[in-house]
Amino acid sequence: MNSQIYTFTDHLLGGNQDKAWEMLLSEVGKGKSSLDIYQNLVTNSLIYIGKLWEENKIKVADEHLASATCDFLLTRYFFHKQQMRKTAPIQKKAMFFCLEEEQHFLGIKMVSLLFQEDGWETRFLGQNLPLEYVTNMARKWKPDLIGMSFTTLYAANQVSDYINSLEQLEHRPEVLLGGRLVSKSPFNQFATDATTVIEELAGLQKWLPLACGEGNHV
């Protein structure tokens, strides 16, 4: 892990929005894509923060402050990118959320922002969303794609129910499944060809252009 990750992590844990923002702008100035920034700077810093918490080197309040700071930065970054470059809408809709009892939402928020930056109309429903509310929203809004995320074993036990319900929706959306645990268990066994399992944000680099068609890249 390079020194940049440690520095960015320190800014998140300290709630130092301005210093962290300067680092994001520096990456933009180097020509880094949003996908690269989210994966190599933001996600790696969040993974490191999780490791510090597991080792009891930081407290719950520290982790919450870092998450809140990161959430603010992601929103600020997206609007900054929108001012720099407007993307033509591609007439597709995508909906993103975390499974019930799943509180870690920053990863799926980054996915939502990537799709939005690429021209999709998106709805980000946040964390801890029971299945009945997901299906109700999906039936009303009819998104072309539904993405969901989980990082806990409790949420993992519900994956098959979510996948089965979403794949059986009348308008037949594509389904994305991601999160920290998908690389550790064979979740593909619960899905048909309508569901794509993404092990990390970098996986979107191959998948997203296929969904967007020619000329729409992050």
TrEMBL record:
One of its GO terms (molecular function) is cobalamin binding. It holds the Pfam family B12-binding. Coiled coil: none annotated. InterPro entries: Cbl-bd_cap, Cobalamin-bd, Cobalamin-bd_sf, Meth_synthase_dom. Residues 91-218 form the B12-binding domain. This is Methanogenic corrinoid protein MtbC1. It comes from Mesobacillus persicus.
